[in-house]
Queue: 3 jobs
Job 1
Amino acid sequence: MRINNKEFKLIIPSDIVWWNYHVTKHFIINDSEQNMSNLIQNRSVEISEIRNKQKLDYKCPSDDKWVENAPSPCPLCKKIENCYNDLEKLRFNYKKFIINAAGNDIKNPFNAQYFHLKYNKDSILIIDNIGMNLIGDNKKSKFCVKSMYRQSINDADQLSLSLGAIFGENKIYIKLARDSWKMRFSRRNIFKNVKLNKMENWK
Amino acid sequence: MSIFKNNISVLSSLENNWLEYFSLTTEYFTNHQISKDDFSFEYLLNKLIYSTNIYYRASKLIEIDSSIQIKPANAVIMTSEILNDIGGSGYNRFKIFCEEYYSKQRFESLLNGIVENDSWDINTIKDEFSQEKEISFFLLRDEINLINRSGFVFREFIDKKNEINFYTKLEKEFIIVFNNFKDIWTSIYKDIQYYRHYYSLENTDDDKWWFEVKSPEMAVENLKKAIYNLNPSKLCEGAIITNIGIETQDLIPDFIKNIGTNVTSLVQNPKILSLVKSFDYSLAPGKHWGPSENKELVNNFTIYIKQRQQIIEDLIKLIKEESEIDTDRKKDIIATAYFLIGKQDDAIEVLNESE
């Protein structure tokens, strides 16, 4: 992959815990907010089936324990391999989205390079054409994937009125991602040396 | 780091923001594939109105140059045309949307969801992901405020329909809920500052509520003042206030030092200061500071002081009477116990006692 005229090797974690945690969090637990499952076929049936199995057979914590900043329950789970197998299709799609976001940035760069003061790491963010936020550590010539997700439409939380069309609208997720990162980058206690590319995508 | 180099950059960003919502809204306006029970168009229309309003508000303070392609006045006209085009049934749908979107019940539930979340606490150091909801909910107040504001696009529209009472009622109820969750707004103070800059806001009568949110530092300063005004007999209450400051920022050492140096006249009794320092101020997970928690803390603190002093004094008595403990060891234990309850003089006296 190339980011801002520099070649990077894309490193996707192979750790089972990482996969189970991220796929469960973004595809299943936060799906009503991030609507990533909208992007794949036959998703709703499969997702509810997997979630039921996680809860009933693997004693996975309830959804409210999966809120932001909650510690991942996956490392302590004894059924982690079974869960990993159940998530195969979703993992495949998650990986596909990562590869697409990483590979396509060269066509219309929409990225940011920054130093994360809390983690003490050089990092890279890519926002892709379906509104995915791909975040990775920038280690010399390696892009080590940390996470990928879509922004939540927070102000529509708990609205009983249907917003199906807008939840399927990639443009909204792109806009939310940009607006949100612009605000985050203003936090000088967390980010420094922020370089945005290309500027017209960030306006 | 600010992404905005200057005021024109701010305005240009708001122009783009408006343009994005305008394109999407018009696209959805003519999209007949959306089912009737789907309120996506109304959601976008509301966003378009807000984007028009913030663009227009900022333009009052910034001189426009040639880099701005769609003048704010034209953005207002174009939004106004869409509003006029939605017709009576379109307006009724929008009203249904607003009634729920700005309902006090939903807002209250959203905010309760934040404070009831185990991971939320006013003194938690927020990372870049954890404040998204809070700031989104904060901005809802700006949205509904601008909907009702004279001279702005939607207000003119509803004035013609004689519908203003419906929206002012929504806003009044909304503000009551907003004001009940001040801790949340303090916890996102820096993001609010960002938006004040992004929206090019000034502290006018209309927008002063933006500037009334206290930073954690300001909250602590106010608490210090409150402490200074206490008399010694009310130090327990002072401790409660101190505690809120501590919960707001990790300032325990400095803050206690301030009590000791700046308010020495209040802390005549070192015993109390010692107890103030050693009291466990932590709250049960998921709880946040509010009137009932403060009251509970006052009670707990009072019980704590009484119990702790009594227990230690009882122990001192027991140890004094205990004959099997080595004399030096006994002196050490008793002196330490006196120190613990702030009786430094008694402690020194015990240590100086000759056998």
Note: Chain A touches chain B through 41 residues (CB under 8 Å).
Job 2
Amino acid sequence: MIRGFSRIGLIRTGIFFAALIIIPLVGAPGFLLNTLIFTVMYAALASSWNLVGGYAGYPSLGHVAFFGIGAYAVGIVFAKDVYGGYLPFFVLPIIGIAVGLLAVPIGWVSMRTRADVFAIVTITLLFIAQTLAFNLKGLTGGAQGSSVAPPPFAVDTFDWPFYFAMVVLLAVAMAISLYFRRSKIGLSLATVRADEDKAHGVGVRVTAVKLTAFGVSAGLVAMVGGVWAYYVGFIYPQFAFDPLITIGMVLMAFLGGRGTLWGPVLGAFILVPAQEFFAQALGASQLYLVAYAAVFLVIILFLPRGILPSITERLRRRRDTLDVAAASAGPDTAPPAEPREVKVRR
Amino acid sequence: MHALIQAIILGVLTGGVYALMASGQTLIFGVMKVVNLAQGALVVLGAYLTYTLFTQLGIDPFLSVLITTPLMFLVGVAVQWAFLRPLHGDDIAQLSLLVTFAVALGIEGVLSFAYSTTLTNVQPSYANSSWEILGYQVSLVRFVAFLLSLVMLGLLYLILQRTKFGRSVRATVQNPMSAQLLGVNSQRVSAIGFGIGTATAAAAGSVFGMLNSFNPGSHYDLISRLLTIVVLGGLGSIGGSVVAALVMGVASSVVSALASPIWSDFTFFIVLLLVLLLRPRGLFGARLRGAL
């Protein structure tokens, strides 16, 4: 499974993206497409977060800082004119690379610390970015916000370019995630997560891989932020640097399963529609915050490893028990071994 | 010069209150190795409790500390018992961090549901009175708040140094394993430690409500300052957090007076950055680790 592509994996990925592409083409209603844009956006964000938070085990709580920087980059460059409407999408890679490079020194400073302090530092990063957005009025418009020029897209298919841009970004994030899993980077990150000192001791280039993961992750998040800004049109510091976006990424990756390819995507496809539903059903935004916290607590208390790892673990155990049962189905049947013992024997 | 000294006075007085909040947070870290991201939200909760006691029952905000502190102690014990105790596994540090963040969000949600999100303030009759000492203004509320914080910190010190519980806390901080082997009930120490940390948040919250306008979202601001303070002081060191709180209080107040209030928040972040670059374990991080 580690090397090469399994056929099932390819088919699954193909079906998933084919479905994503077909949905708007067959005339999905506006509200569905709108929900889907945010779902795919969060799937891309969570997959990017997963590169650092999942594979490297560094739980960044400040990733929304890069999201906001990407958003403001688009907002500032295309405040007056969007040049036909498609140019902002083509500029995204430049923004992504620039933010990725900007993230490297930030990562270098913040990753001098380990998990708990790292989370603190990244949280303050979020507030630094927000404070700057509020205070650098000349650049960002401060609390008045700034706006992107409206794109000249046809009304019927207005959402399409944004949607497909998000789908492309999700594909890129997943491709990078897959590449990480199959390459030396992924292995190095896994050793960092397991025991950084030992990894360093046996010659893993700890700092280099951590910074690579952090930079790539930040760049991806910035690109998603750019599309988001273009889509919503208005950017305010408190929304572009919303702590809830950070928490969304973390929560979805946790729900689906950190350090897996599909976990963050699964988490997003469960939580974002659920969020929309709650927001509509409960109306009051305050209750929605409480519901969010409750879901968060339930996930961490009852599914601390996430859905996918829990399922795979259970499936493997069952297969093991079956194997053992088949092996021991001799004339005088020994009692079937406990799954736990099987695990020790492997 | 006058403005500078005035700013330093203000900074020390404000820093005292931050010291109270931060000491609770760093105590929680020392005992449980949990970075409590809900500390800011608990302070805001304490402020709202004081607000309700003051507006509904007319209880003086300073006296209400006698009610809010024990109440919030119980809240803290309940939070620890319900959400932190069940956690287990290798990545317990990450999980507990996220759990406390979820608790913060929950508190914010409940508060904005109960009180709406408009800014409020606890305004007793003496809110605006101040003394003039040698030409410097000293606000009555700030001064009493500072004294209250000193008293609470002194109490905390006495509890940690002079009681059996305090000894088991210090033992747990120094080495959880040996403490357990010596018969310290670590679950109980964790629960009570978290409760005490929450109680300091409550006491600080009562004061915070008089010194600042606040709304349920204020905890984001608070927590980023508190985290800077505890990292600067060295996670787990109560003495360090007190020193760091005073340093930060003075620094941000001086920046606010001499440059602009807008950038005073920024002082915190710059200091944090410098600490991480020069001395990631904080002022009193490793050396005083067990000393509290």
Note: Confidence is low (pLDDT under 50) at residues 287-292 of chain B.
Job 3
Amino acid sequence: MKQWMLGIVFGLCAFPAQAAVNVFACEPEWAALVAELGGARVSVYAATTAQQDPHHIEARPSLIAKLRRADLLVCTGAGLEVGWLPVLLRQSANGRVQPGRPGYFMAAETVERLEVPTVADRALGDLHMEGNPHVHTDPRRLLRIAEALGERLVAVDAANGDHYRARLGDFRARWQQAMDDWSRQAAPLRGMRVISHHQDWVYLYDWLGLVEVARLEPKPGIPPSAAHLSSLTATLEAQPARMVLRTPYQDARPGQWLASRTGMQVVVLPYTVGGSPEAGDLFALFDDTVARLLEAAP
Amino acid sequence: MNRVINARLASVLGLFFTTAVSAQGSIISNAFNPAISLILDGRFASFENDAEGYELPGFMSGGEAGLGAEGFSVGHSELVFSANIDDQYYGQFTAAIADHGGETEVELEEAFIQTLGLGAGVTVKAGRFFSGIGYLNEQHMHAWDFADAPLVYRGLFGDQLRDDGVQVRWLAPTDVFLELGAEALRGERFPAGGAANDGKGAFAAFAKIGGDLGASHSWRLGLSHWRADVVDREAGGHSHGGAAEEHASFTGDSAVSGIDFVWKWAPGGNATEHSFKFQAEYFLRDEEGDVTVIAHGATDEGRYDGTQTGWYAQAVYQFMPRWRVGLRYDALEVDNDVDDAHVAEHAGLDAEGHTPERWSAMVDFANSEYSRLRLQFNRDESYADADNQVLLQYTMSLGAHGAHPF
């Protein structure tokens, strides 16, 4: 039995290495970014879709099998995947992507994070001690992550270093141009008051200057309750807001209920690549996000 | 004895609280400490029959087998420490603190190290761990969907199979999940016994295959086998109203084979609102050897050759955020051949012409990922007198966020 197993193991070691770098991306935004920076030299797998809540993913056998063969793991980090990624890492038997190795890249850890709690108390909800992990909703932070990820691709696949550096330079130029356009288009949104379902958009607000009045979740990670929603109607009478924002994977009902009582609009933002029919890549994601906000704005 | 345990308990808890306080000041100073979580578990149980009289006819019960206390009680409080040791190893330690017969006992539930990437898909685990056989066996009891173990786990493994030893797993480099594993074990704990062959008394092997069907469905199928040279395995769980002073022990060969299946569904893979989980496991145990019974001061021996099989199937549906309902059915079957009727009766190997079965229904509510309240009802026909059981349970975790396996 044991000899037979070892036979298979050594047989597999003899296989030639694959040409493309295998990348396991925890969320669609990182899969899209890897595709921008790696082009044909990478083969990228997105572990989740825009219709799934990245906080709550099953550590499925298929994900373990995919991570087993990855050369590079690209995730958000900052506690977003704490409920499933540690299990995948331990079961993947893949030393290349373990914490501390070049193949382990946590995007949120390369940028400044907001909402870093000063008190660790779960009575305040499901806090991320590393700060709010939803960093990709700010294109300025996304560019800094792209630069760190580009360097990491060079470290993992040094033979193709020039390829990644060239693509990063190209991406940077196009992204800066796009950011200028989005900022100009979104200028009327500055100071607009909004309500969010969860704390998904903190970085988007930071970028566009939106003002968050309240959240539908009474505490981070605790679903909206009837009591909390009723109390929000009172808050909104005193401090009206223009719209309720949610992601495609969040329950539609709490936002609709509140909107129907307060005259607000519910706006579903794509949140990540694939979150709307229009949001096919990172550029389209922000095009569509800004367009949807402008459409609902006064 | 008790004082020693209390001192140990105090030092373990002291360590926990010091870390928790320092964690408040700064997360950086805590970065190299192990992740610590404390599981609090308590329940209220109501049985129609006397819990002391519980038995599974035809099974020499051991381990944790039994119904537990009636009325209010705290279950297993677990203290879990885990961390990456360095870039090559991960370690985990679990102490279970529970009351047994009025005394607080600290039990070393798990203490293992595991490699993080030997290469070629191989993972080695060493120490004390839950065996990789079956589906439920590797999960902590507090992660189960019902408050008690399936009857087949209770009867064959004394709720859960864990042992000291080494486990080697190999994960295939394929898109379909395929994992093979083998374990060499000490074989001292129930359902083995005696740590035969100089402390290498038991062996286990398993194969698991799994994958996805679209974005909404995922599944895993497992095959497992466990065998042991058993020396003087005590049957602890059997009693006749708790009165008679008697001992039964088994020496011989024991082998268990099993098949397990789990299927999970969530619309588009998004379990925020609705999700469904179905699981079923079947085990067959073959035993052959000698049974010794000491009863009423007399010693009797008998030759025993038996087969016990059992299975359960359960379904759990999340019908709205935080709320789930579940249904489970259990059944066992016994075919034991003992050449001495007196030995068979006193060792608990006499099936008494009964086929154990049980229906269970539960509803649970999880306020957050860290807390769960559960109400469960069992129609328990483990033995001839059918019992109606009501269990009200809480399971809460403090500290580090646990990641749950599939």
Note: Confidence is low (pLDDT under 50) at residues 7-18 of chain A.
